């Protein structure tokens, strides 16, 4: 907290989160966040004090946080979502409860988690469930939240606020489909979500050319597809999660949505493997105490997406590998398949 305060006020050096390799940053940058790099070279996102504080204040305002309220920290400080909890706390004149490695959870007013944590709270982690139920609001972001888990959370009287954003927007900047104060969202010609406002990053510290490509005329173009209806943003998935198998397009997001709805007690993911016959072959991975059969999985997907989307391979794991704070690590799933092939 002391180092963060020094960075935000310009009294100390900028703070690097994650695997940051840069040693110098522009004077206006207070925090540098290394992205997960799940789909390419990691980017080091430079964030200003102004952007971070605007984000924290808008977040506190949205959830109704008052001076003296307490946030709990359940996310790693190598990620923007974790550092945001600290900045929101600074704005409230408090210190967050560090609950990153505990089994008993004291009461807090607010917290932020990823869908994986919510899933586990609803499927056996009773202490965490109790903690979430006692919070005035629980921010959930970092990955897509399934309709099944959302419904279960509401049934358990958890006041979830689904957030959408990324490191380039100081984390979540759209809450329950509504942009925070000072944030504007539009849909580009290709269906990509575009964001402008005071929460935007200063740039990529290690790749200015990539930033110049994504940030044009005050708008940051994301890799996510969406639509706006009655002023509410709906995120439909990533523009780069579509694989071409046998000449047909298959959305991994669509596959995962089907699996989540059909098998709500399991965590699931779709991923692609290079294949000489199909080009890219669809594989699926599931984790849970009881997983469905391969035939049941195939039937569920084929019924919605057709025969072309019948999986070509399956993984059944104790837990899905994740990168950052809840996003499934599809590269790790591919490596597991490769390792299993070598062992045969």
Question: Please, could you describe this protein's structure?
Answer:
Belongs to the ATP-dependent AMP-binding enzyme family. InterPro entries: AMP-bd_C_sf, AMP-binding_CS, AMP-dep_synth/lig_dom, ANL_N_sf. This protein is of the alpha/beta class. Helix content is 31%, strand content 32%. The protein has 10 helices and 23 strands.
Largest sheet: 7 strands, mixed
Low-confidence stretches: none
Q: Which percent range fits the helix content?
A: 25-40%
How many domains? 2
User: Mean of the pLDDT scores?
Assistant: 92
Strand order, sheet with most strands: 5-4-6-7-8-9-10
Pfam family, one: AMP-binding
Keywords: Ligase
Family: Belongs to the ATP-dependent AMP-binding enzyme family.
InterPro entries: AMP-bd_C_sf, AMP-binding_CS, AMP-dep_synth/lig_dom, ANL_N_sf
């Amino acid at each position: 907290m002391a180092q963060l305060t020094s960075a935000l006020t310009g009294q100390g050096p900028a703070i690097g989160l994650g695997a940051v390799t840069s040693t110098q940053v522009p004077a206006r940058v207070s925090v540098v966040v290394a992205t997960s790099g799940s789909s390419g070279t990691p980017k080091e996102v430079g964030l200003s004090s102004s952007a971070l504080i605007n984000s924290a204040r808008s977040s506190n305002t949205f959830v109704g946080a008052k001076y003296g309220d307490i946030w709990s920290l359940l996310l790693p400080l190598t990620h923007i979502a974790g550092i945001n909890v600290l900045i929101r706390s600074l704005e409230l004149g408090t210190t967050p409860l560090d609950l990153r490695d505990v089994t008993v959870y004291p009461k807090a007013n607010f917290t932020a988690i990823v869908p994986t944590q919510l899933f586990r709270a609803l499927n056996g982690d009773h202490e965490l469930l109790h903690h979430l139920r006692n919070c005035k609001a629980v921010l959930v972001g970092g990955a897509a939240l399934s309709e099944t888990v959302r419904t279960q959370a509401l049934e358990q009287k958890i006041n979830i606020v689904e957030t959408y954003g990324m490191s380039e927007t100081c984390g979540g900047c759209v809450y329950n489909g509504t942009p925070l104060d000072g944030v504007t969202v539009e849909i580009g010609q290709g269906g990509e979500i575009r964001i402008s406002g005071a929460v935007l990053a200063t740039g990529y510290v290690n790749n200015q050319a990539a930033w110049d490509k994504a940030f044009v005329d005050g708008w940051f173009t994301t890799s996510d597809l969406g639509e706006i209806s009655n002023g509410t943003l709906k995120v439909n998935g990533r523009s780069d999660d579509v694989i071409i198998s046998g000449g047909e397009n298959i959305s991994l997001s669509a596959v995962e949505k089907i699996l989540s709805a059909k098998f709500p007690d399991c965590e699931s993911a779709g991923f692609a493997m290079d294949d000489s016959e199909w080009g890219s072959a669809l594989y699926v991975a599931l984790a849970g105490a009881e997983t469905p059969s391969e035939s049941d999985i195939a039937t569920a997907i084929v019924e919605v997406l057709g025969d072309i989307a019948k999986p070509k391979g399956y993984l059944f794991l104790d837990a899905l590998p994740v990168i950052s704070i809840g996003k499934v690590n599809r590269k790790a799933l591919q490596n597991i398949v490769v390792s299993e092939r070598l062992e045969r």
